[in-house]
Amino acid sequence: MTAASILEVTDLSKSFGGVEAVRKCSFTIEQGSITGLIGSNGAGKSTTVNLLSGFQRADSGEVRFAGESIMGRPPHQVAARGLIRTFQTAREWGSLSVMENMLVAARAMGRDAAWRSLFRPRRIATAERDDREAARGILADLGLVALRDDRAGELSGGQKRLLEFARIVMARPQLALLDEPLSGVNPVLVARISHAIEYLRQSGITLVIVEHNLTFVEQACDTAIVMALGTVIASGTMNALRKDPAVLDAYLGVDTSALGVDTSA
Amino acid sequence: MIDYLVSVLTLVSIFAILAIGLNVQWGWTGMLNLTYITFVAVGAYVSAGLDVGPPIYAGQQTYILSLSLPFPVAALGGTLAAGAAGALIGAIALRRLRADYFAIVTLSLGLVVYQVVAQNLGLFGGQVGMFGIPQPFANNLPFSPEEYTFFYLGLCLFALACVYLLARHLYRSPFGRTLRAIRDDEVAAQAFARPVFWFKLRAFILGSLIAGFGGALLAHFVGAFNPAGWTPGETFLLYTAIFLGGTGNNLGAILGVFLFTGVISEATRNFIPMIPGNPDANEALRGVVGGLIIILVLRFRPQGILPEPRDKDTDRDKDNNASASLPVAPATPQLT
Question: Which one of A189, A256, B8, B246 counts the least CB within 10 Å of its CB?
């Protein structure tokens, strides 16, 4: 593999009962890229995200993140190494304020141990002040700073998504897996989400975006990985994928028009 | 009358301490511990066992321990014993169980411990319980028995103030904030690198420590402790107080105990005439009122009288003039 790859997935497999949700799935993510992960329903995209982030345990295969194996590690350890994921719903901490959501998302560095709050109050206070400062900057960039004292549960669907992106920037991961970032977002706000994704990239975060909206993937992503029946069938730029017979086959009758393919040709 | 008020206030301040501990577990972290009172009992029994002396006359009940230690050591021992029990139970029950199964495990655990203690005379006096628990510091202070009740009230109020300030500090700290995030969405907390199990365990131990401390104060206030004092129903009385005062709000827990234990329960005890031939009716009425309060609060004001405080972020550079933030006024009840 090239030195610039941040995530290397080799022969990842997972079965539920007799169903092979993911089988011998392999791909590589380049550092600093934005990669779309596409495929029809049941292709194994969400399971792959769950396996990579540690929320489900793979049956076999190997995942190397930033040069280290993260197979079998629980989700919080995967996240602590710099791989953060989102979910199909926004999953904000609803009764916490927007600012508090940012502070929880920030790297803890052991700061949230109870004894530290009791015996190192000044050090905690300094660190908190820096975190709040950084959080205000990020919230301002994403247009949420005026809402920072509101409870996150009271935000609109689109604002919750933006808060999710803000939390990711706050956590400063190396790689973020965005699981359907457009679900639950008013189409009018799609442009703002695109802007937010560009903002994540500028913050130096490598992105993998699972998405159904292929127009969006084409706009936002450098390359895409196509999954079908639990495995990777093709990868490359969207232009190249349009001509790939395996991709056409997998998508035929499902969503051909979205790929912009003229099937009569 | 004044004796009665002092006694009620002492009990209210001890129960307020207990409610704060339960609030750490339920209000902050969302762990439904249905046997909180068991950890209170651990603190009460162990602290009493540490400072009750050996039998003076032949035939008197002997308890295990019987170490005649001074009260501060005994109270600390009771507190730590409850914390250790919390660590043990939490380590087993919190690891893999979903919230509702965790609640079932705590409930059954409480019933088991209750039977073991109640049936085992040699352990803590069985059903009869322990008595002759010494009054803290009484031998070193020149107080008459009447004056001593005031002293003990002061001691309990001081203890309540300490526990409250500790809880307030931790609630706002990164530790407390992480607990509240886990309560709101523990999957998201995991995705942001928080080891959920360890945080829950620490919150469970913290709540158990407070329970044990309150239990030590309770046993030494009453002077005796037996299984009738820690029936499973007692836990529900504390939950009622927390729901009423405001789930998650430490001040709310104190207010809820004052209103429910101090005012409503005492009213059913004293100001409603006894029904002849039904000596248990008033006690039962207390449970009915408690259940009714939970239903009404959850229906009409689920956040309780005092809602959770909200973080106010002030930017010193920009909001120099606006930074004198006003305290949030309690919202008016909304009948939706």
Answer: A256
